[in-house]
């Protein structure tokens, strides 16, 4: 574990060299493959040191962090070409990757909290430094205050647990159950509900996505939303007793919110806003599955977190490719792209199909597990689940048909075929999304 952390720390120095942009990207992929081969057989916590260790949940999410950070550099070629503070940009991505790896491999609750919050800083700089409109300042403040205000009760709760249990180790605390602590239950999970985000505390996400550069959107959708799910997976061992009493509130809000947000998706005209709201709907199902505290629920939520990270990130890349050509993200202007960029239409179709959980994507496996768990928890939830599934297909098809079909906007008279880098970028999102389902049992190994 230390070798991996030191490797990434020394990459920070490379970010200040002038011609190191693509070298850093290649090294990120190289370290990912070394990591994948070296630690491919984990059942329980392994690679344990004083503060760090790994199990199967950490393993999958660390791999996802590596993958998305490598693809972020590939997607942001404009920053490299126009020399838009590219060294600082590379530094931010390496620092973010380091924080994410330390978050997912922390075995102490306080260290987890520290790196969980630290990952917010480079994301904020990405939005403020390389965002598009002046409104990015407001989006950054939304992101900062939503996350920090919800995290303060978590910090106080961690200190309370330290006083009560004399330890903050996840392994030790997994054997403990805190009883009769209703306020503790709320303060421990609130930070993760905001990060996921749960409906009612989700307003920062569409704002942040719309104002962020493509790399900011990719890391937000790909990895940072998964920090909330990961935190809940770790905390629910402690909160089983309170969870049985109060989880139904959050399941109800998530399912109702998922259906409402799906309807909001159907009236979006901004490509990025539509994809951002679809993330809220998907993470609502993930949260509901987690809150059922069943084997199927935890398994499905973990699978869908990985799948959503790849699929949503790929859709943001597509939106950015269109934005670079057309100068707008509006669906009213991005029409008839089938005539304008015929080679990209296949990628739009494949990733929109992934977004609506069509076979053979990993999203399908995750949603089947989650449907099982939520319906077995309460059959009344079938009503909302049916609406979410139906509208999920509706807004994915709406996104595809509105952007690809129709009369071409008169301002875009030139034809574009896209370049190799863009096709490689999209292929690297789509391939793991469809290949991982062949090894679906892999996700179940950690339980």
From TrEMBL:
Localization: Mitochondrion membrane
Annotated NADH:quinone oxidoreductase/Mrp antiporter transmembrane domain residues: 106-390
Catalytic activity line of the entry: a ubiquinone + NADH + 5 H(+)(in) = a ubiquinol + NAD(+) + 4 H(+)(out)
Keyword Hydrolase set for record: no
Membrane topology designation: Multi-pass membrane protein
Transmembrane segments: 20-37, 57-75, 87-104, 110-131, 143-163, 183-205, 217-236, 248-266, 273-296, 302-324, 336-357, 377-402, 423-442
Keyword DNA repair annotated: no
Main location: mitochondrion
Function: Core subunit of the mitochondrial membrane respiratory chain NADH dehydrogenase (Complex I) that is believed to belong to the minimal assembly required for catalysis. Complex I functions in the transfer of electrons from NADH to the respiratory chain. The immediate electron acceptor for the enzyme is believed to be ubiquinone. Core subunit of the mitochondrial membrane respiratory chain NADH dehydrogenase (Complex I) which catalyzes electron transfer from NADH through the respiratory chain, using ubiquinone as an electron acceptor. Essential for the catalytic activity and assembly of complex I.
Protein name per UniProt: NADH-ubiquinone oxidoreductase chain 4
Organism: Anopheles gilesi
């Amino acid at each position: 574990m230390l070798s991996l952390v030191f490797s990434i720390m020394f990459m920070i120095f490379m970010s200040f060299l002038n011609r190191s942009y693509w070298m850093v990207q290649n090294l990120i992929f190289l370290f990912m493959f070394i990591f994948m081969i070296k630690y491919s057989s984990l059942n329980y916590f392994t690679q344990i040191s004083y503060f760090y260790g790994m199990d199967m949940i950490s393993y999958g999410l660390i791999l996802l962090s590596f993958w998305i950070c490598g693809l972020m550099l590939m997607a942001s070629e404009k920053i490299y070409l126009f020399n838009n503070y590219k060294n600082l940009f590379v530094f931010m991505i390496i620092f973010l990757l380091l924080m994410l790896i330390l978050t997912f491999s922390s075995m102490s609750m306080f260290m987890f909290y520290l790196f969980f919050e630290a990952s917010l800083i480079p994301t904020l700089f990405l939005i403020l430094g390389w965002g598009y409109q002046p409104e990015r300042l407001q989006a950054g403040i939304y992101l900062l205050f939503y996350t920090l205000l919800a995290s303060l009760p978590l910090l106080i709760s961690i200190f309370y647990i330290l006083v009560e249990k004399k330890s903050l180790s996840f392994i030790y605390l997994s054997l403990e159950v805190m009883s009769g602590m209703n306020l503790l239950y709320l303060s421990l999970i609130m930070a993760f509900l905001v990060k996921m985000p749960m409906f009612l505390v989700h307003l920062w996400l569409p704002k942040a996505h719309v104002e962020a550069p493509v790399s900011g959107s990719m890391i937000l959708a790909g990895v940072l939303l998964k920090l909330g799910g990961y935190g809940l997976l770790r905390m629910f061992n402690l909160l089983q007793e309170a969870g049985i009493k109060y989880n139904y509130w959050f399941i109800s809000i998530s399912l109702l919110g998922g259906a409402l947000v799906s309807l909001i998706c159907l009236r979006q005209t901004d490509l990025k806003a539509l994809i951002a709201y679809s993330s809220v709907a998907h993470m609502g199902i993930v949260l509901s599955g987690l809150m059922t505290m069943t084997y199927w629920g935890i398994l499905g939520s973990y699978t869908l977190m990985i799948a959503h990270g790849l699929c949503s990130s790929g859709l943001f890349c597509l939106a950015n490719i269109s934005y670079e050509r057309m100068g707008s993200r509006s669906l009213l202007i991005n029409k008839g792209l089938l005539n304008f960029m015929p080679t990209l239409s296949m990628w739009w179709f494949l990733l929109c199909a992934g977004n609506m959980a069509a076979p053979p994507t990993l999203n399908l496996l995750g949603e089947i597990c989650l449907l099982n768990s939520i319906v077995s928890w309460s059959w009344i939830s079938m009503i909302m689940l049916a609406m979410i599934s139906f509208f999920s297909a509706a807004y994915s098809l709406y996104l595809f048909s509105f952007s690809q079909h129709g009369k071409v906007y008169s301002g875009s008279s030139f034809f574009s075929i896209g370049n190799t880098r863009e096709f490689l970028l999209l292929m690297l999102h789509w391939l793991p999304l469809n290949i991982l389902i062949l090894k679906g049992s892999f996700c179940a190994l950690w339980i």
